[in-house]
Structures are given as structure tokens and as C-alpha cells.
Design goal:
By secondary structure, the chain is mainly α.
């Protein structure tokens, strides 16, 4: 959960107009941050846990709390966050978005692709280890040999974003809802959540 230090930091972040991104935080910490912050918070790159049950994805409770407080949820296209990794279909992805919209409302949703291109396992090695512990050289070598997970065929580069929009339209979202999910909701969130206020 939020530590005593965190309870001091959150009001200061609110005062400064900073966005809090809870993508990498656990359930209790995320929900407490939503409750404590006077400004709406964001989960910029994750997926609902109902789609894939992994600690990096978020529960319905988090989705609902974001919807109720004007926060934002960005759907991840990083294969380990997807139900079937690179084999996840666009149809499955848009079905997930539709179900999340039922929980949080479509104005809470956006894309937070977490797109990574041209990387290999050394990046994962760096992210997992950093300066936190001594890492044996054999472990470094194992990570260096690890390929980066493949992207789904329908999202290989950012140039594939129009196909995501088409998939959302085919799922039944209105043109305005698709425009929101594809970027307008983020623009509104950043404008409204960060406007000067007496916090």
C-alpha cells in the first residue's frame, strides 16, 4: 500500500500538477492512490486482469475506480500482457476493450501500447536488475540471448494504429468512442487533470 512517505508525496504531486501512473503498482497501492489523490490518476499501459491474470494487469475494481474518478486506462499491446501473447487476435483485443468499457466507461479508456521495437533480453535484464543486486555474468548472458517477444501480426509498428481503430468500429464502438480511445480521451485527461487548481 501507500507508505507514509507516499502520503506526503501524493499531495505534492497534486500541487505540482503531475500525473501519477500506477501501471507498475499492485492492487492495494493502486486503489489507495486513486483514493488519496485529488487529481485523477492514470494506468498508462496495462490490461484488465479478466483478459490475462498476471500481476501487471488490473482488476475490475481498479477499472471501476478510474471510471468513477475521471482517471485513464491505457491498453497495452506488449505481448506478455495479452491473453495469447503474439497470437492474440484483434478480435480478442477489441472484445477486451468492449468489456472494459462496460466496467469503466469508454471515456476512461485509451491506448498505451507499450510498443518496444528492436530490443532484446538485455533490456529486460536491465529493467529487472538495475542496481538492486549483484547479477552473475551467466545470468546476463542468458538474458542477452533472449529474443524480445513477438508482436501480434495486426500490430507490428505504430503505423498499424488505424487497423486497431477499424477493429473497434467493427466491435460496435461509435466513431466518437473510437476517436476517444485512439487519443482524444488522453488529450482531454491531460488537459483537465493537469489544469491549475487550488490543491
Amino acid at each position: 500500500g501507500i507508505t507514509r512517505f507516499g502520503r506526503e508525496v501524493i499531495p505534492e504531486m497534486n500541487r505540482l500538477g503531475m500525473v501519477m501512473d500506477m501501471s507498475h503498482s499492485a492492487e492495494r497501492t493502486t486503489l489507495e492512490a486513486i483514493e488519496l489523490s485529488r487529481r485523477p490518476i492514470a494506468v498508462t499501459h496495462a490490461n484488465p486482469r479478466f483478459f490475462k491474470d498476471t500481476p501487471r494487469n488490473k482488476s475490475d475494481a481498479v477499472l471501476r475506480a478510474l471510471g468513477e474518478t475521471g482517471g485513464m486506462f491505457g491498453f497495452s499491446l506488449y505481448p506478455p500482457h495479452l491473453r495469447d501473447g503474439a497470437e492474440t487476435t484483434l478480435d480478442a483485443f477489441t472484445e477486451m476493450v468492449a468489456r472494459a468499457a462496460e466496467v469503466a466507461g469508454p471515456r476512461t479508456l485509451g491506448i498505451g501500447s507499450d510498443m518496444c521495437r528492436g530490443w532484446d533480453g538485455r533490456v529486460i535484464d536491465y529493467m529487472r536488475n538495475g542496481r538492486w543486486r549483484f547479477v552473475p555474468e551467466a545470468e546476463h548472458r542468458a538474458f542477452a540471448a533472449m529474443p524480445w517477444p513477438d508482436q501480434p501480426a495486426w500490430f507490428q509498428t505504430p503505423a498499424d494504429m488505424p487497423g486497431v481503430a477499424e477493429g473497434l468500429r467493427a466491435r460496435g464502438f461509435s466513431r466518437d468512442e473510437v476517436a476517444g480511445i485512439m487519443g482524444d480521451n488522453w488529450a482531454r485527461y491531460l488537459r483537465d487533470a493537469l489544469e491549475p487548481a487550488a490543491y
